[in-house]
Structures are given as structure tokens and as C-alpha cells.
Amino acid sequence: MARRFHDETAHTPHSVRTSGHTLDWDNKPFPFKIYTDAPAVELPRDVDLPAAPTLQALAAPGPPVAGLTLGTLTALLYYAAGVTKKKTYPGGGEVLFRAAASTGALYQTEVYVVAGAVEGLDAGLYHFCPGDFTLRQLRAGDVRAPLADAAVDSTIVRRPATLVLSAIYWRNTWKYQARGYRHLFWDSGTMLANALAVGGAFGLEPAIVTGFVDDEVNHLVGLDADRETALELLPVGPEGAAGAPPGEVPALRHDVMPLSTEEVDYPALRELHLASSLRTPAEVMAWRRAIGPGPREPRGPVIALPEPRLDSRPLGEAIQRRGSTRRFGPAPLAAPELSAALWAATRPIPADVPGGLVDLYVIVNAVDGVGPGAYAYWPGHGLELVRAGEFRREAAYLTLEQALGGDAAATLFFLAPLDTILAVWGERGYRLANLQAGIAGGRAYLAAYALGFGATGLTFYDAEVVRFFAPHARGLDAIFVTALGRGGSTRSGVLVSNPIPPPRRL
Length: 506
Prior knowledge:
Layout lengths: L1 H7 L4 H6 L21 E3 L5 E2 L4 H6 L8 E2 H12 L1 E6 L5 E5 L10 E7 L2 E2 L4 E6 L4 E7 L3 H8 L9 E8 H8 L3 H22 L12 H8 L6 E9 L30 H9 L5 H9 L12 E2 L11 H7 L11 E2 H11 L13 E6 L2 E2 L4 E6 L3 E7 L3 H7 L4 H5 L2 E7 L1 H8 L3 H23 L2 E5 L3 H8 L7 E9 L8 E3 L7 E2 L1
Parallel strand pairs: 2-22, 3-7, 13-15
Antiparallel strand pairs: 1-9, 4-5, 4-21, 6-8, 6-10, 8-9, 10-11, 12-17, 14-16, 14-18, 16-17, 18-20, 19-20
Helix pairs in contact: 4-7, 5-8, 6-7, 7-16, 11-16, 12-16, 15-16
């Protein structure tokens, strides 16, 4: 089913030109989920700033802390999913930008917190609303034990808190239709890239949990799986005493503000998510025991890249500056800057399943010290030339004929051996391929803004990308694209100050 879904939602020049889909702006989903009857906990506005240089934070996490406080949890939520700035347009329209990139700035990823031993916060289940910067309590009491049971992970019951990332389908499918299923994992991946970096810098030892009994987690959080579903778990903080089991976990009933006047259902998306769900603890354990494909090796000579630049802006400042570049200028990147972005994108992922499932290909347009051409990147080695030449026009064409792809100094294409992944992990492997590509893209974003240049995510013509990199990319599928470069002149609009007071430095 995942293979068929991937092929049927692929972009082609024909599908893009013949699509009858239009955007109903009057029915655009509201960007925040609002629980209207749940008690709110206002979060501290004096947010702790992760002061470690960004790339050093990616290279080595900070020393483990003794416990988790509400202040540190607040900083983690803010730098993963908070509102960092807003842009106003002539006529009064505005867009609120979040800490992590999201396809179409639609922000369908929601964050819940299962808190058990957080200093300054009562045990319970909470929803994080970045709009008014509050936690709303959905359940009182310690529910870490049922979450640990659903994930078949006994450490969760001893961790102070676990973030549950979910996605509201309609908020993305309003624009992208069923193909939006891929975006759920790209966008939660970019958010997790931030959360892993920030959590690591604070010494919280974050680790992604991708395997869990889906129905049990959705029940615990109170999600209607036909509209919103849990995607990943992120336990944070040091292990301590386990809370007492709460007994039976009743169904949740809370009033939520509607997102739109009406919603459009895309059955193919729901059917794939159901088919990729795990139903029993035994299936979760089998998911974790699966042995992935071994690393691919270069087929020809590899051009060594300079050591990546690790001297960079502090992590908090880099995230605060992050945006999605809408125009690239002609100034080139330096080879150490490209090296840093590629290095960051391919860092190991702390998770319950193997990483390294996504291969990275690059079209270099303007990088001092690296000739124009198409390359495969090999972590720890360098660039393998696939094809030499000027490929700006091709890069723009591959990225759905968007100028950004060709104007960028370098355009990164994340490809994966999808059939092999599905053979090992089944339908749920489709989630994994898209998630790992999203994390890689999110880390490339972090590197770009840490070093003072820009990045943006782009969509693409699926088969055309693979064809361009063939025969080197034979057996792979295009999953995600991120373009890098120095910003050009900006469009009209004014950036105004962050509605949350500027974070203080520790």
C-alpha cells in the first residue's frame, strides 16, 4: 500500500498541470488547536536560551542534568514549536512563524506533554498551544505508565516527561491533498531536529520513539484518529523513580474550537496510516528488532571536503533567526559552509530504530572550492561526482519548476531505498523514510542559520529527480529537498519583534 501511495501521490509535469485543486482561502484551517474547556497553565515568558554554539551542540550534547524543571521544559517547547516572529503584509495580514519549518507554513504538528516528575508542573497530560504560550491540562495525574506500556519502553515511566508529536491531517491536506501524508513526517522531523539539538544542549538526553501501539497512544492523548494521530514520542530528562500506575485510563472528552467551516477527507491518507499502525506490543518489539540495510558505499573517487565549520551562532539565536528563504542571491557559499550543512544533515539520530536510511545527493551551483555539478555525499568521506556541469536550470525544473531550486548555491536531494525499507519494516517503513529525511532537512536548516546563510524546503518531480541522478541513484526514491544559499533582496513586508519577550541568556 505504501509503494502504491507513494507512486500515486508523485508529482509529474502532467499531474501538476492537470490538477483541478484550488485553495479555498475562506476555509483555510486555523493554525492553532484550542481546547476551550481545559484549564490553562501559563508558561514562563523568561525563556532559557540554549547558549551552546549550534554545530557544537549537534556534535556533542551537554552533560546530563539531575532533573527537569518547568523552565527547561518551556525552553524546549519554545525552540521546538513556539512562535518566534511574525510577518505583516500591506493591508494588515500577518503570518506567525514557528521555530521549525513547516510545509506551506501550515503547522499541522501538535505537541502534547506527558509530565510525571517536572519541577514546577503537576503530573498530567498537557497540550502545548504556541498561540498563547500555555499548557492546557487534559488529564490530571501521572500517566507515564500507560504510555510506557503502549511504547513497550520501560524507561518512559522513569523519565520526567515525554513529548507526543501528532498531526492534524486537514491543516495540511487543505493545500496538499493526500500527498500531505508525506509532509506530516517531514514537518515533525524538522521539529524533532530542533528538539534533539535543544534537548541535547540542555542535557536532557532526548531519544525518538517511533514504535508504539498507535490506538493506545491516541486513546491516552484523546485523539480522533480519523482527523489527528500520534506520530512520534520524545522522552526527555534523566531517569528517576517511576510513578504509580494510574489504573484504567478513561476516554477523554474536551471541546475543541473548529479549524474550518468544513473539512475534506482524503481516504487514501487515512488508509495508509491505519495500514502502517502497530496493534500489539509484539508488533512493536518486532519493529525494533528489524535489521535495516547496510550502508551504501561510494562507487568512484571521493572528493574530500574541508572540515565543517563548528564555530557558529548559539543554538537559541540560530533558531530565533530561522525562516524559509524566499529568494536566493548570487553570492556563493564557502566549501566549509556546505560541508557543515551536509555534516549536520547526516548526524546520527538517537532513536529506537536505525538511522542512515536516507542518502544525500547535491546539485552544486555556487560553492567556492567545489566545482558545479551533481554529487553524492558520503558522511565521513566527501563528495562523489555523479555528473559535472552547470545544472541551475535542471535544479529549478526538478524542484517543481521553482526558481529557488536553481538560484540556490546548493540544492540537497534526500533519496531513500524505499522498496528495501518497506521490505524490512513493512508499511510503517514509509513513515520512517519520510521522518528521517525531515530530520536531515531540519538539521541542514539549523546549520544554515547558525552560519549566517539561508535554507528552504521544496517539493519536486519525484521520478525526474531519480532520473537526473541515474544510474547512480538506481533503486532509490526521492523523499525530500532542501535548498541552501545566501538570501537576496526581500519581498515587501515587515518583520516585527517576537511576541514573546526575547529569551535571556543563561
